[in-house]
Specification:
The chain has about 240 residues and is an alpha/beta fold. The chain is about 45% helix and about 10% strand. It has a six-stranded parallel sheet with strand order 1-2-3-4-5-6. α4 links the parallel β4 and β5. The chain starts with a strand and ends in a 14-residue tail after the last helix.
Length: about 240
């Protein structure tokens, strides 16, 4: 099983250290958003990925994501233009892939593929796969959603690959209520669903953030009841007693 290891960090030096460690431990590729302390401008982003490329021989994924959250202080996420990403694909030896999940996702996928050509080995969408149908049509080679409903995302992709867009759209409509809830609560929903499906032992979160109250759990009950027939990994969807 190929393994892509996330090596994003506050500083370039930290990211380089993580990338070296990942390669030494047998990773097949690494992925990172640009360092964010301090935030990087366009040339800074180029230099960040160039430093990763010099540090390892592995393929590198650019993770393009707008700044996350609000409030004072630096935040992970640096939105990069399609032109900059195409330049990095063409000029930095090991930069090969993109995970695109910034604003104007569809446009950037089309534009990067137009500009970079064969220098781009693949673009994958993100954002929970909420725009997967459009991304597929534009030439995306995959998607990197959160992992609580991976088996349904895989079915959706395989249905598109089989040429059945109508069937894929019907399946997407079944998945969308969970994706909407995921967008609202983030990690709290990822972990809660994985916990209910008996994949992890606890929904505990290390970082502060939104939590689900009794009403939220009731809504999630309904969402999972309706989605459960599409799970290929058959696990319970109720909270463990």
């Amino acid at each position: 099983m190929p393994v892509v290891v996330g090596v994003g960090a506050r500083t370039t030096q930290e990211a380089v250290r993580y990338a070296k460690f990942a390669e030494a431990e047998g990773a097949d590729a690494v992925i990172a958003m640009p360092a964010f302390d301090p935030p990087l401008d366009e040339q800074g982003c180029f230099d960040f990925y160039a430093a990763l490329s010099e540090a390892v021989t592995l393929p590198i994924y650019i993770q393009n994501h707008e700044p996350i959250g609000t409030g004072p202080g630096p935040r992970p996420g640096t939105s990069m233009t399609a032109d900059l990403m195409a330049r990095m694909l063409k000029e930095i030896p090991n930069v090969r892939y993109i995970k695109e999940e910034s604003a104007q996702t569809g446009y950037k996928i089309s534009r990067v593929l137009e500009l970079a050509g064969e220098e781009c080995w693949g673009i994958m969408g993100g954002k929970a796969g909420r725009y997967l149908l459009d991304e597929y049509r534009r030439g995306a080679c995959g998607t990197m959603p959160a992992c609580e409903s991976t088996d349904v995302h895989a079915q959706l992709w395989n249905t598109l690959d089989a040429g059945n867009e109508a069937g894929a759209r019907l399946l997407f409509k079944e998945l969308l209520p969970l994706l909407n809830y995921e967008a609202l609560f983030g990690t709290a929903v990822y972990k809660e669903v994985l916990y209910r499906r008996r994949i992890i032992a606890s929904p505990h979160k290390r970082l502060a953030g939104l939590t689900l109250d009794a009403h939220d759990h009731q809504e999630l009950d309904r969402i999972l009841e309706e989605l459960a027939p599409y799970f290929t990994v058959k696990t319970p969807t109720t909270r463990p007693s």
